[in-house]
Amino acid sequence: MGIRITLVLCVLACAPAAGAEVPIYDVEAVHTYPHDPQAFTEGLFYLNGYLYESTGLEEHSSIRKVRLETGEVLQKIDIPAQYFGEGIVNWGGNLISLTWKSHVGFIFNLDNLKLKGQFHYAGEGWALTRDDKRIIMSDGTSELRFLDPTTLSETGRIRVTLNGNPVQNVNELEWVKGEIFANVWQTNWILRIDPTSGAVVGLINLSGLLKSTDIVPGQTDVLNGIAYDAKNNRLFVTGKNWPKLFEIVLRNAKPLGGKTPPPIE
To answer: pTM of the prediction?
Structure first.
């Protein structure tokens, strides 16, 4: 997905001090659940008591229905070997999925994960989420696309900006209380995005969430994966090949102003 990003949102370093204060939040893990350390997580959502997860890498991509409490995979389908699986979202009894560079997405029956059809799009496919009217898609740039949930054709875009500067590598998405939460690829940050303007209205710092004792060199990869249980107001996060999935709450909001947040590991 491009050249490794070594700094968080390079725009932060040159962001002007003027303008609205953007808060930075730390997090507290209030529950920890098992997660398959072989799952290269690309997409995640919570629905009716279960997690739905997509994994990536050619010849290893899959979509699974997972029991939250135990990490048990209850249903699984493998994506054809030539595709690198990416984001997923549910809509109207379907599960919709993206692939990375193949310009093709798939439509599955949500109940049994049987393939129903496919669709096409320009550019790369990274992540999906939804509000009550639209599907929202990221493509690795600073832009988010809006898709018609019936035709899956593009209906509009917004640019994600922090203090007026575009934020690149916007990745996994989740709709949370009227905002879009988004991982920034290769960082430990989640953005809180205004879905109307694209402006970042908050930054969530997850550095140190996965302890060093849980990291396997050469296997454990970056933070990626956000799911929200709206009924019970629970926010979940995990990462690629992480052995754990966390329920988190936001703590200690501090203003960003024109400052640069702590460096990314």
So the answer is: 0.89
